[in-house]
Amino acid sequence: MTAGRDDPLPRAVALHGGSGDINVAGRLDIRRAPRVPVTLPHRVGNAPAPVAARQERAADGRLWDAVAAGGAAVVAGLGGVGKTQVAAALAHRLWAGGALDLLVWVSATSARAVRAGYALAAADVTGVEDEDDRDGADRFLNWLQAPGQAGLRWLVVLDDVGDPADLAGWWPPVRAGGATVVTSRRRDHDLTDGRALVDVEAFTPAQAVDFLTARLRGDARRLVDAGPMAADLGFLPLALDQAAGYIGNRGIDCRAYRRRFAQRALDELAPTGVDPAGRLANGQHPVAVTWRLSVEAADDLDPVGLALPLLRVAALLDGSGIPRAVLTSAPLLRYLAAQAGREVDGDDPAAAGRWAEDAADAVENLRLLSLLTVDATGPAGRRPDGERPGGPDIAGDVVRVHALVQRATREAARRDLPGAQTWRQLVHAAADAVLAAADRAGRDPRAQEILRGNARTLIAHGGGDLWVPDGHRLLYGLGGSLRESGRVAAAADYFRELADTAARYLGPDHPDTHLARGKYARCLDAAGRHAPAAAEYDRLAPHRRGAPGDDDQKLVAQANRATAIGSAGDPKAALRIFTGLVRSRTRLHGPHDPRTLVTRANQARWRGETGDQVGALRAYDELVPLFERTFGPSEQTLWVYGQQATWRGELDPAAGVADLARLLPAQSALLGAHDPSTLLTRHNLAGLKGRAGKVDEAVGDLADLVADCERHLAEPDHPVTLMARSSLAQYLLLDRGDGPGAYRVLRDLVNGQTRALGADAPATARTAKVLTRIEDEYRRRLTAWVGARTGPGPHHTTVARLASDIRADADLTRRALTRLVDTGKLRLARGGQAGAVDPSALTDHARFQVVAA
Q1: Are 67 and 3 in contact (CB under 8 A)?
Q2: Pair 182, 217 in one domain
Q3: DSSP H helical segments within 568-634, as ranges?
Q4: Which residues contact 316 (CB under 8 A, 6 or more apart)?
Q5: Residue 520, domain member (yes or no)
Q6: Among the four 304, 318, 453, 515, which has the fewest Cβ within 10 Å?
Q7: Residue 9: pLDDT above 50?
Q8: Residue 189, CA atoms < 13 Å, CB-side half-sphere
Q9: Cis peptide before 794 (omega within 30 of 0)
Q10: What SUPFAM superfamilies does this protein map onto (predicted)?
Q11: What is the C-alpha separation between 455 and 254, in angstroms, rounded?
């Protein structure tokens, strides 16, 4: 449809949204005496004028298409996105284009307001004014569908419908040539059923900047940081409009507004004062009030009183994606029940199930009021290739909340909750809910990543409340999740900062501070930084010995310390410590307790590392049936299988290959094909293949493993990646004699080791030494090539030809040339001018001359 065309209007359209700021102009004057009907075309009520700097948006086009198609539509969106303006723009466009005979605009905030608006229209078009507005409303609707009105082009806009029930019995007829547009924050089934849904969304970044530019009259001084300010406000039209008014009234720029936005409450940033009704001078509600009204409406829906506390929890989490499982978890159900003055009986599954349904209904009520959206990110149970299958699809159903809605909710909660204790209860309830969802998610990498994002956001908002009375488990769970996901370096950084934070809140000698330091040391060890980990454990040891508390935790700390010491190069010390730990575990828990069995398995490992491979294998042969009986088909059992196979392979590589080949499918099925433990098994399997004489197969497997590690592990310098590169380089260099291939792998390896372990780490130094030997060898070959030529030179060649002659690649050849030129042993020339060529800039096939010094 275009303005001015005579195409018939669709029969019924509903526009979901509305600011509620527009009222029907005039006052209904009840009279019994008839009057002359108005002449068409005619308007009843006043559609709001377009706001200054209005932007044409996708919703405008979608609504226009819905009107042209003749169907029904519901246009949805958060309060403040400009739903009323979308409806008004349509009305003005149709009226100005001569496409309407009758335009009726009604402020539909109640059923009575709807009837009053209809009665006013009836008086105009029929000349009859009814004493009862019900009669007038009926008269108007009957008039619209009377046979004499066939071909009449009309549009009825019902703005800001607060309750779909208010329209029961008062919908305009569905008729060719007529259209009904409803704006409402509600998206109930009764409102949307049979009507197309047209969502009104926030501005795009470009639209937001264009809007601000127009509102601030293109003043470049005022527009400094306009883009970042728009992003701060979530590109929400109402917030941007009020920010522009504030900037204009205060004589500041966008950058200054950003500073105030970061430091002040939203209520302090209104462009003008508010009247007793809570409205600004232009009739708008301040942005925070707009949502407060929606929250109150959602909280009044059944189950009454749950929407607000649930939104408060969501306001502390990551608004870009909160798993629904967090909002329906057992800890959150208990919190919601407490807010409602009731209890959840954990021993009554039926009662708990009803509370879970109530929580789900509260989420739906917030969705009905457009305060949040619910998105399914993918079919339940589907996982990307290589990720652990099965388990609850925590990541498959997420809730999204606009950042400004979250902020307004947090500010209101801090103001309205009675005392610091209730705010702390809210923070702890949210933390408990995230932990509960994380426990359900297991090793699902997608779900854990989403939950880590929520934990980070909650920690930022919770602040010191998560340290009362001591450190909440979520603080430690986030770092543990990072480590388990393969982000071992990031986990080490996290726990180092957490230890500093714990010392600040609780004191340096508090057990939770020591706990964070212990986890920091463990992550250092997992990242391959064994010596620093051992040193950190040594610093903690006196505190562990002297502190009261759990003997089990002290033994765990000793075991972690022993592992770090052994990995740092002292396997005998590690074996000695684990031997003592086995005695302690057996005395405290018995010989077949799971903790004793794990300690015995670690003792067997370090027995093998000291050279007693037969003793290590014998110990694992004894442990495997005990692990199977105690742990079942679990990660722990797979781990001990892997240890048994590896030590068997030390004595009989072919037997080890067979054992690891059987283990790998089970590990992939349980943990995922790209879990670090699975990738480590692939590394060990390739190594044993090489020792069994299958060098080509080992090299191919290791090359594939390096590629998979680089593609799937969360950190580029993960220990398994470094290990795989090292083994690949070893086989290329020693077994294949492929110096250039080994050199390429070793260069990546030494760069990764430098980043992950430090330039002074022993492993980094060993790799650098091998690189130097390779470079020395190819410089020797290059010098011999020059010396073998007759006469003093010059010798004409190219990089590609020279690389072939000395059995190198182009990069290694350029490096050898550069070093020999820098040390004065060779000179390069072009056009007879020695020294005019930069070896590192030579293309592969450019001719140059090599001159012996």
Answers
A1: no
A2: no
A3: 571-589, 594-609, 613-631
A4: 406, 410, 426, 427, 430, 457, 458, 461, 462
A5: no
A6: 304
A7: no
A8: 1
A9: yes
A10: P-loop containing nucleoside triphosphate hydrolases (SSF52540), TPR-like (SSF48452)
A11: 31
Rounded to whole angstroms, the Cα distance separating 396 from 390 reads 13
548 band by pLDDT with thresholds 50, 70 and 90: low
Domain endpoint, select from 184, 199, 214: 199
**70, 187 contact by CB (below 8 A):** no
Please report where in the chains the tokens 């500041």 appear, as a residue: 252
* Token couple for 617: 């294998």
State the amino acid at position 229 in one-letter form.
M
Rounded to 10 deg, the angle between the 594-609 and 613-631 helix axes is: 160
Sign of CA dihedral 608, 612, 613, 618: negative
Gap between the Cα atoms of 155 and 177, Å rounded? 9
Q: Is residue 549 part of a domain?
A: no
Is it the case that residue 2 has pLDDT exceeding 60? Answer: no
Q: Report the chain's terminal Cα–Cα distance, integer Å.
A: 84
**Are 432 and 298 in a shared domain?**
yes
User: pTM score, two decimals?
Assistant: 0.79
Structure token digits, residue 645: 């196979």
**Cis amide bond preceding 625, omega within 30:** no
| In the chain, % of residues over pLDDT 70 | 89
Are 151 and 9 spatial neighbours (Cβ–Cβ below 8 Å)? Answer: no
Q: Which of 680, 599, 684 is nearest to 647 (CA)?
A: 684
In this structure, the answer to whether residues 461 and 318 fall within a common structural domain is yes
Indicate which CATH number applies to the domain containing 825: 1.10.10
Domain that holds residue 213: 205-275
**Residue 390: predicted pLDDT:** 40
Q: Rounded CA gap, 725 and 727, in Å? A: 6
Residue 17 placed within a domain: no
Q: Residue 324 in contact with residue 363, Cβ under 8 Å? A: yes
Token duo for residue 744: 């390429």
For the chain, the residue count is 853
- Angle of CA points 339, 345, 350, to nearest 5°: 110
Six token digits for residue 203: 């501005």
pLDDT at 100: 94
Category of 735 on φ-ψ map: left (φ > 0), alpha (ψ -120 to 50) or beta: alpha
376, two tokens: 């399914």
In this structure, what are the phi and psi dihedrals at residue 516, rounded to the nearest 5 degrees? -65, -40
Q: Which of helix, strand or coil describes residue 70?
A: coil
Q: Where is 783: in which H helix or E strand?
A: helix 762-787
8 A C-beta contact, residue 297 and residue 371: no
* Dist CA 286 CA 241 (whole Å): 10
pLDDT bin (cut points 50, 70, 90) of residue 283 is low
Q: What is the pLDDT of residue 175?
A: 85
Query: Computed over its alpha carbons, how large is the radius of gyration of the chain?
Result: 37
Angle, vertex CA 696, rays to CA 694 and CA 699, nearest 5: 105
Query: Measured between alpha carbons, how far is 78 from 202 in angstroms, rounded to an integer?
Result: 8
- Find, among 567, 631, 572, the residue nearest to 596 by Cα: 631
H or E element that contains 375: strand 373-375
Site of tokens 């000695």: 576
Above 60 in pLDDT, residue 17? no
CA distance 402 to 4: 39
**CA dist., res. 239 & res. 203, Å (int):** 11
> Which is nearest to 460 in space by CA: 407, 394, 516, 417?
407
Please tell me the total count of domains within the chain.
5
Residue 829 lies in a domain: yes
Sort 480 into a burial class: Cβ within 10 Å, 0-12 / 13-18 / 19+: middle
Q: What are the pLDDT digits (tens) for 643-691? A: 999 999 999 999 999 999 999 999 999 999 999 999 999 999 999 999 9
Question: pLDDT digit string (tens) for 802-833?
Answer: 989 888 888 888 888 988 888 888 888 876 55
Contacts of 409 (CB under 8 A, 6+ apart): 291, 295, 311, 312, 314, 315
Mean pLDDT for 351-372 is 89
Name the domain boundary from 758, 775, 805: 758
